[in-house]
Write a structure and sequence with these properties.
Elements (H helix, E strand, L loop, with lengths): L1 E5 L2 E5 L9 E5 L7 H17 L2 E8 L2 H5 L11 H10 L4 E6 L2 H4 L3 H12 L2 E7 L12 H11 L2 E5 L3 E2 L2 E2 L2 H9 L3 H8 L3 E8 L4 H4 L5 E4 L9 E8 L6 E8 L11 E6 L10 E11 L7 H19 L2
Parallel strand pairs: 2-5, 3-4, 3-6, 4-5, 6-7
Antiparallel strand pairs: 1-2, 8-9, 10-11, 10-15, 11-14, 12-13, 12-15, 13-14
Helix pairs in contact: 5-6, 7-8
């Protein structure tokens, strides 16, 4: 059941064997880990401290909408690794990641409560969103959780919506802001700039030929929540974030790719970082991704993009 550790968090895959001790649990997809999720986790850690339990989350992989309607599922804001790292940063100590497949989707609401919450998580206290539904056909609701809590000896509370400037914070709202290129609004909903993580891989070295060496990251977000050219800051290569310019997309000018690629050019930086795991923070969108007629036009635009990013950072 236990399958790896990230930061200070213990992570368990599946629910067939119990976690080591009673926990306080929050349930959700936590895509993007926005301000609403942060408020939920703050309530989780407070309750865990009060009850002397470990704060834990129950989440799903893949996202249920990817299972039920893969062709129309929304773009993911965060990979599983990114999500778990962010949750760990907020103080979550344990995570149960349930594979969302036909067997799991077929659990009745009663079976979900008994097999997952009671036997698997040994839940002492449960926190859910005010619109949480569960079980086959989404038949389970808050009232059923409360009734089950009285039977099995756990308590339940619902978390209301969090708003920013009158807007309900949601993963959908973050997606809309990113798709519109409004990085500032996305950051307001997230509580931080939008971030993508990845390992630096060897590429075709085209950036070096164009005079702008890049760190290439193969991105697992597909479809992408956004694309284009951005002013970015990169963490993971030193004590301070490093400024740069990045292209996120499919590189239409150089033949294109079916899988998204994130290419980052760091300013005034010349180190071999192949294999490093870095975090790219998207601060400002400069333009949409576009096709250029030749490499000379592409090179000129990259130079203009780099200058615009430097101006954004006042370098």
């Amino acid at each position: 059941m236990f399958f790896f550790i990230t930061l200070s968090m213990r992570i368990f895959r599946g629910h067939t064997r119990p976690v080591p001790a009673h926990v306080v649990v929050a349930i959700g997809n936590f895509d993007g880990v926005h301000l609403g999720h942060a408020a939920l986790i703050a309530r989780l850690t407070d309750a865990a401290a009060r009850l002397g339990c470990s704060p834990a989350v129950l989440t799903f992989e893949p996202h249920p909408r990817e299972f039920f309607a893969p062709d129309s599922a929304p773009a993911r804001l965060s990979t599983l690794r990114e999500k778990l790292e962010l949750l760990a940063d907020f103080g979550v100590e344990q995570a149960m990641v349930c594979p969302f497949n036909a067997r799991f989707a077929g659990l009745t609401a009663d079976a979900f409560i008994e097999q997952v919450l009671v036997r698997g998580l040994q839940v002492r206290h449960l926190i859910v969103g005010d619109d949480f539904r569960f079980g086959k056909g989404r038949a389970g609701d808050f009232a059923q959780l409360e009734a089950a809590g009285r039977r099995f000896g756990f308590t339940v509370e619902a978390m209301g919506s969090v708003t920013v400037d009158g807007e309900r914070v949601s993963s959908s709202g973050v997606r809309r802001a990113l798709a519109a290129g409004d990085m500032a609004h996305a950051a307001r909903l997230l509580g931080r700039p939008y971030i993508m993580d990845g390992q630096v891989l060897h590429g075709q070295k085209l950036g070096r030929q164009l005079g702008f060496a890049t760190a290439n990251l193969r991105i697992k977000h597909n479809p992408l929540p956004m694309s284009g050219v951005f002013a970015v800051e990169v963490s993971g290569l030193g004590e301070q974030p490093l400024p740069g310019v990045a292209n996120l997309g499919v590189r239409p000018t150089v033949g294109g790719t079916t899988r998204p690629l994130l290419e980052v050019h760091l300013f005034d930086f010349d180190r071999d970082i192949y294999g490093a795991h870095i975090s790219v923070r998207f601060e400002h969108k400069l333009r949409d991704e576009q096709r250029f007629p030749n490499f000379d036009a592409l090179k000129a635009q990259i130079a203009a993009d780099a200058a615009a990013a430097r101006a954004f950072f006042e370098l």
